[in-house]
UniProtKB/TrEMBL annotation:
Cofactor(s) needed: Zn(2+)
GO CC, alphabetical: cytosol
Function recorded in the entry: Catalyzes the aldol condensation of dihydroxyacetone phosphate (DHAP or glycerone-phosphate) with glyceraldehyde 3-phosphate (G3P) to form fructose 1,6-bisphosphate (FBP) in gluconeogenesis and the reverse reaction in glycolysis.
Catalysed conversion reaction: beta-D-fructose 1,6-bisphosphate = D-glyceraldehyde 3-phosphate + dihydroxyacetone phosphate
GO biological process: glycolytic process
The protein's name in its UniProt record: Fructose-bisphosphate aldolase
Residues where Zn(2+) 2 binds: D132, E162
Residues the record lists as binding dihydroxyacetone phosphate: G214, G254, G255, S256, N275, I276, D277, T278
């Protein structure tokens, strides 16, 4: 398989919800970290999701160019080519955490680009885009979500929304860590009233249950996974004729510092996508740091010496970094239950 078609992506997410597992959604910042993520998915025999944040999209164009749309398109085209060399997995491409101030310079142009692709009989470059309306009132959040959902239908992509605020900081977006980090059953019901439940276009929903972006020790983050069950069941009960108790495809943001049992509980309530960023960043960079410390005299031209080209060649420490990050991706697949479940 290669990059997921829209139909294949929907099948992936529905299979995860029905099967009680979730896909790691790995944030990447370069072709190296993309390759590391793909290596991990392949070794775990897991389908998965690769995503770029607003900062990563700009960085992928080169820090001087700093163009989010150009970076996203270039990255996606590279990914489409490389993913085809991993025949045992299906991977979806996603843009992550687009806040209101970035819509006109990132996700809206991408949706227009993809709608044009579809109009010319092509598949869209990305399979889903996230609208992060967590910093604005919910009525404005959902009004923009309705607009983007209609555009997503034309682009044959899926929309991801965030209801509530995630604490901590990511790519310049920050929120306090306090009692405001918890969505409600009323929020779930309102989302369905405003967006429907698939008839107006399919979407994923990141309801917040104490999630925090960043690096924290286990126990610091006060998650309430049972809140997801309440939102799912409370919303389902309000829908006449709805069968089942998981109306939403849920997304888990800010998972660093979460206990394994909390992750497993959240997945059991319908989480199908969990964002992984901080931990894979560290795994990648820690391997590079280890290489540099171990080979200090060879990677630096100390006291007029020449060093060792084989050891300061970026490919030498790059391979170590990719292997280390791929191992963390395999670990995530096992924790979320997607390992060994690649769709055939």
């Amino acid at each position: 398989m290669t990059v997921a078609t829209p139909e294949r992506y929907a099948h992936m997410l529905d299979s995860a919800r029905q099967g009680g597992y979730a896909y790691p959604a790995i944030n990447v910042t370069s072709t190296q970290t993309l390759n590391a993520a793909l290596q991990g998915f392949s070794e775990a025999e897991s389908d998965g999701i690769i995503q770029v944040s607003v900062g990563s999209a700009a960085y992928l164009s080169g820090h001087v160019v700093n163009d989010r749309v150009a970076g996203s398109i270039a990255f996606a085209r590279f990914a489409h080519e490389i993913i085809g060399h991993y025949p045992n997995i299906t991977v979806a491409l996603h843009t992550d955490h687009c806040a209101v101030q970035y819509l006109d310079e990132w996700v809206r142009p991408l949706l227009r680009y993809e709608a044009d692709q579809v109009a010319h009989g092509e598949e869209p470059l990305f399979q889903s885009h996230m609208w992060d309306g967590s910093t604005i009132p919910i009525h404005q959040n959902l009004a923009i979500a309705r607009e983007l959902l209609a555009k997503s239908v034309k682009a044959r992509t899926m929309l991801e929304i965030e209801i509530g605020a995630v604490g901590g900081e990511e790519d310049g977006q920050s929120a306090a860590i306090n009692d405001s980090l918890y969505s409600t059953v009323a929020d779930g019901k309102r989302v369905v009233r405003e967006l429907g439940l698939g008839e107006n276009g399919r979407y994923m929903a990141a309801f917040t249950f104490g999630n925090v972006h960043g690096a924290y020790k286990p126990g610091f983050v006060k998650l309430r996974p049972a809140l997801l069950r309440e939102i799912q069941e409370g919303t389902a009960a309000s829908l006449p004729g709805f069968k089942g108790n998981k109306p939403f495809l849920l997304v888990f943001h800010g998972g660093s510092g979460s206990r394994l049992e909390e992750i497993a509980e959240a997945v059991s309530y319908g989480v199908v996508k969990m964002n992984i960023d901080t931990d894979t960043q560290y795994a990648f960079t820690r391997a590079i740091a280890g290489h540099m410390f171990k080979n200090y005299n060879q990677v630096l031209k100390v006291d007029g010496e020449m060093g060792d080209k084989k050891l300061y060649d970026p490919r030498s420490w790059g391979r170590e970094a990719e292997d280390a990050m791929s191992r963390r991706v395999v670990e995530a697949c096992k924790q979320l239950g997607s390992a060994g479940k690649a769709l055939r």
